[in-house]
Specification:
The complex is a heterodimer. Chain A contains 15 helices and 11 strands. By secondary structure, chain A is an alpha/beta fold. Chain A has a domain of 260 residues: Amidase signature (AS) domain (Amidase signature (AS) enzymes), CATH 3.90.1300. In chain A, strands 1-3-2-4-6-5-10-11-9-7-8 form an 11-stranded mixed beta sheet, sandwiched between helices. The two termini of chain A are 19 Å apart. Chain B folds into 3 domains: 288 residues, no CATH class; 115 residues, no CATH class; 58 residues, Arc Repressor Mutant, subunit A (Orthogonal Bundle), CATH 1.10.10.410. Chain B is an alpha+beta fold. The radius of gyration of chain B is 31 Å and the shape is elongated. Chain B has 15 helices and 18 strands. Classes of the chains: A alpha/beta, B alpha+beta. Chains A and B meet through helix 9 of A and loops of B.
Chain lengths: 497, 483
């Protein structure tokens, strides 16, 4: 049997081979760049810069040769195009920022580069991270003349999920061993579930938001996406850590080696199963896969504890008030004055604003700006925004109540497997409702992850969601890793990949 | 607050103030860009100030400490937890499309500013003072058919200080603004430069018949000199009264004062007031100020004017009037104290500072910082008066010589000008004997009980001594000899 191809290696194994100089960082980078260029059909990448990538790879090889290897030296990764980067354009999937060059790198980008990772390019996403199907990007992916939706490598007639759809598709198609994503209401977990990969969103405040183009500031959080929990742990260890000089919401919690506890026993782990996650909205195929995964956990020595998260349904209206409210304000800076798109012909200042923003933003972004402006406006603020904040607090309290009787919470990531392209694009509310299981944890600021748990309708992957208490990333990754030691769902590959 | 309010054409004037004091930090309130005034456009604006995608605000602790100092100086409550909010509106010089300010819970709550208007003590209550960032500037002159944006000022820390409507005349308004200006410059949280916009006042003005509810107010924006402040308010009051007398209701509005015409002119009315959609800024956690932090700021704070005045009364035995006058500025107070300590003659020093020195400063010849007569020189001068070396009048000649730069050393001036009083009693006795011998009729008249004759003899002695005799000593010796 021949040794596995570079793109089939885990991050852990690739890092080991790089450090042993069995493969060079330049070879690894070239291998993945070749794959990306040979497989543009998924629309996963929006920008490459070979020169910059190879320069980083050469630097990694030099460090390795000098015996100064860093944890991720030479490991190729790619970034969701929500993170700003000096060497690649940063667009947030919006016409508003087409071709925008940032003068600085996001903290997450810097931290991964400092750990030795080599950046392959930038990944497609929903415009300003708003969407759950990655059908809202206004940027033409590599190999395309026009904007195109990202396609699911398991079935290219289906969506990859969103908003980190390009990230999930790239990992599933083995175009990168690991990538970054961002999660506001489920944007790491849901695409990870739809594309059969593993992704984790840490506790709000553990990863710096500096350099992440803001959608909803009180919810946005960066995290890694890869094929396994072990690989996610390697990247998350590099990403997390305080950034007090750049992000005031960054928590003063030291970085952690999330790989250390991966193999700990989960004997006696109490897994809370919220009744509200298994109601009638849950598709039978998803339910079957999730039930199967829970049984597997019991086999591994965990106990299932029935719990209740009574305000699960309220998380949808609460989220779709708070996130648009913050977005409406965050996106005000895109006014055509200083950077980004400006309408060509306009009359006075107001006309310039109107035309610039009408042309620069897509429908979903405009919809959320309008909702946000409405719920913050005089006379409605108390009834909507303030009320939503109160319920948000209650939702967080519900989790604390639940964690009295369990260590982690498990359930589905999404009610269904990935749907067909265009199936819900005319019905925004149907899209919003599909976020029901990821929103509660986001609103509470809790860490959450998705790991492959089986397959459903059409052979599409189904993810299991694990939600931990604050700073419980290590425990989540441990539980996921033990599951992945006992199962092979995460090792399956889409046909033709 | 006040005794009987002064009425204008039968109307009571009601004024509230909003003052933007630019805080004297080196860097901006939420970024590390410098705050220096007058640089080339957009050279002092960093990525955060330009609101580039991905940037986030980080609070400058120095700005918070200055707000705490202000609160302590005027006896306010310092909020243990205050909230930053976003005020959303579109304007080209507002890079984020919102201004970070404080809305529901400001950092400083309450407090009062007291001052004298003539002999009457007035007190203006403060509602609040809150931290916020300044916007940039639109430049309309430099470009043909286009406007330029200079974001150097964007993100400059401001403390907005809001009063209750306690002010009842333009005189009171100016006195309040001057007192507030004194406080912020005294404690050093603001450079007070009104021309550069470091201290800008907005006055909310309304009029009413005594006993009636508050009238509708109009806000005069950006009053950047005390002179314009008075003119603008006086014009506005007359305009409002004329409107009401003519049967027109006052519309709530924001107005600008035009110094060229001396008139106020409406910029916008309430109808087009924006809905700012305030909400707590999710990028900034609540501003938590511990009691320990407040105590630390307090311990490092400079002595406040009213505390210093009380100390001048207690330690130097000055009358209250002197103490209050000397603490009108920090530099003046420091000058006084240095001279008082060096000479050991606080009351004499006070007389000279409030008299000769102030007269020259007020005439605009110099500021206290650049006064040609230093505190040490004044102390030496006062010392020579106190020890009888020179008379008070001779002191004025010495002062003039020092001020004009003619000489630099007090004793040298006294010597050069021959101003020394004759303290040698032998020499003086000789003069007195000669005067008595030469003025027999005056001596006779004095002995017959005519006091005037004695004064004539004193005058003769002074004349004979060329003014150098010590008048007290002359009196004494003459009396002895004529006894």
């Amino acid at each position: 049997m021949t040794s596995p191809a570079l793109h089939d290696l885990s991050v852990a194994e690739l890092a080991r081979q790089l450090q042993k100089r069995e493969v060079s960082a330049v070879e690894a980078a070239q291998h993945f760049l070749g794959r990306i260029q040979a497989a543009p059909q998924f629309g996963a990448f929006v920008a490459l810069n070979e020169e910059a990538t190879l320069a980083q790879a050469r630097a990694a090889d030099e460090r390795i040769a000098a015996g100064q290897a860093r944890a991720l030296d030479g490991v190729p990764i790619a970034h969701k195009d929500i993170f700003v980067t000096k060497k690649f354009p940063s667009t947030a999937g919006s016409k508003m920022l087409a071709g925008y060059q940032s003068p600085f790198d996001a903290t997450v980008v810097t931290r991964l580069a400092d750990a030795g990772a080599v950046t392959l390019g930038k990944l497609n996403c929903d415009e300003f991270a708003m969407g759950s199907a990655n059908e809202n990007s206004a940027i033409a992916p590599l190999g395309f003349e026009q904007p195109a939706p990202v396609r699911n490598p398991w079935d290219s007639s289906r969506v990859p999920g969103g908003s980190s759809g390009g990230s999930a598709a790239a990992v599933a198609a083995r175009l990168a061993p690991a990538v970054t994503g961002t999660d506001t209401g489920g944007s790491i977990r849901q695409p990870a579930s739809f594309c059969g990969i593993t992704g984790i969103k840490p506790t709000y405040g553990r990863a710096s938001r500096y350099g992440m183009i803001a959608f909803a500031s009180s919810l946005d959080q960066a995290g890694p996406m890869a094929r396994s929990a072990e690989d996610c742990a390697l990247l998350l260890s590099a990403i997390c850590g305080p950034d007090p000089d750049r992000d005031s919401t960054s928590l003063d919690v030291p970085a952690e080696d999330f790989s250390r506890g991966l193999n700990d026993s989960i004997e006696g782990l109490r897994i809370g199963v919220p009744a509200e996650f298994f109601g009638e909205g849950l598709a039978p195929d998803v339910r079957a896969a999730v039930d199967g995964a829970l049984k597997e956990y019991e086999k591994l020595g965990a106990t299932l504890v029935p719990i209740s998260l009574p305000r699960t349904e309220l998380s949808i209206p609460v989220y779709y008030i708070i996130a648009p409210a913050e977005a409406s304000s965050n996106l005000s800076r895109f006014d055509g004055v200083k950077f980004g798109h400006r309408a060509k012909d306009y009359g006075d200042l107001t006309d310039m604003y109107k035309k610039t923003r009408a042309e620069g933003f897509g429908d979903e972004v405009k919809r959320r700006i309008m909702i946000g402006a409405y719920v913050l406006s005089h006379g409605y603020y108390d009834a909507y925004y303030l009320q939503a904040q109160k319920i948000r607090r209650m939702i967080a309290d519900d989790f604390q109540q639940a964690f009295k009787s369990c260590d982690v919470i498990a359930g589905p990531v999404a009610p269904t497997v990935a749907w067909k392209l265009g199936e819900k694009s005319a019905d925004p509310v149907a899209n919003y409702l599909a976020d029901i299981f990821t929103l509660p944890g986001s609103l509470a600021g809790l860490p959450g992850m998705s790991l492959p748990a089986g397959f459903g309708e059409g052979g599409m992957p189904v993810g299991l969601q694990l939600i931990g208490n604050y700073f419980g990333e290590s425990r989540l990754l441990n539980a996921a890793h033990r599951f992945q030691q006992a199962t092979d769902f995460h090792l399956r590959r889409p046909e033709g990949i | 607050m006040t005794s009987q309010p002064k009425l204008v054409q039968g109307y009571e004037v009601v004024i509230g103030f909003e003052t933007h004091a630019q805080l004297s930090t080196q860097s901006k309130i939420f970024s590390r860009a410098p705050t220096a005034f007058g640089a080339e456009p957009n050279t002092q604006a960093c990525a955060v100030d330009l609101a580039l995608p991905g940037t986030l605000p980080v609070m400058n602790k120095g700005a918070v400490e200055r707000a705490i100092e202000f609160g302590l100086a005027i006896g306010s409550h310092i909020s243990p937890k205050s909230i930053f909010a976003r005020k959303n509106y579109f304007y080209p010089d507002l890079p984020k499309g919102y201004q970070i300010s404080q809305f529901e819970i400001p950092v400083v709550v309450g407090g009062e500013v007291a001052f004298f208007l003539g002999d009457e003590k007035k007190t203006v209550r403060l509602v609040r003072a809150h931290l916020e960032e300044d916007a940039g500037k639109s430049l309309h002159e430099d470009f043909i058919g286009q406007s330029g944006i200079d974001l150097n000022r964007a993100g400059t820390p401001l403390l907005e200080i809001v009063t209750e409507p306690d002010i009842r005349s333009s005189d009171e308004a100016v006195a309040y603004a001057k007192e507030l200006h004194k406080i912020v410059t005294w404690i050093g949280i603001c450079d007070g430069n009104m021309q550069e916009g470091s201290f800008r006042c907005d006055a909310n003005v309304s009029v009413r018949k005594p006993g009636q509810p508050l009238g509708t107010r109009r806000e005069i924006k950006n009053l950047n000199s005390f002179k314009f402040m008075q003119q603008a308010i006086d014009y506005e009051v007359r305009w409002q009264i004329d409107q009401i007398e003519d049967g027109h209701a006052i519309q709530q509005a924001t107005v600008l004062f035009d110094p060229d015409t001396g008139e106020t002119r409406a910029m916008r009315t309430k109808e087009d007031a924006a809905d700012y959609r305030y909400f707590p800024d999710p990028d900034l956690p609540p501003l938590v100020i511990s009691d320990e932090w407040v105590q630390r700021v307090k311990a490092a704070m400079t002595e406040l004017p009213r505390t210093m005045a009380a100390r001048f009364v207690a330690d130097y035995g000055l009358p209250e009037y002197d103490a209050t006058t000397l603490t009108q500025s920090k530099a003046m107070a420091a000058y006084f104290e240095a001279a008082a300590k060096a000479s050991g003659q606080p009351k004499l020093v006070s007389n000279w500072v409030m008299g000769e020195l102030s007269r020259r400063l007020n005439s605009g010849e110099a500021s206290i910082e650049t006064a040609p007569v230093s505190a040490a020189q004044l102390a030496a001068l006062v010392g020579r008066i106190a020890d009888g070396t020179i008379s008070n009048n001779a002191g004025k000649q010495v002062f003039e010589a020092l001020w004009s730069g003619e000489a630099g050393e007090v004793d040298a001036v006294i010597e050069a000008k021959g101003l020394k009083q004759m303290n040698d009693s032998g020499a003086l006795e000789k003069i007195i004997d000669e005067v008595i011998a030469a003025n027999a009729d005056n001596v006779a008249q004095y002995k017959a009980g005519k006091e005037k004759a004695f004064n004539a003899l004193v005058g003769q002695v002074m004349k004979a001594s060329k003014g150098k005799a010590n008048p007290g000593q002359v009196n004494e010796l003459l009396k002895q000899k004529l006894a």
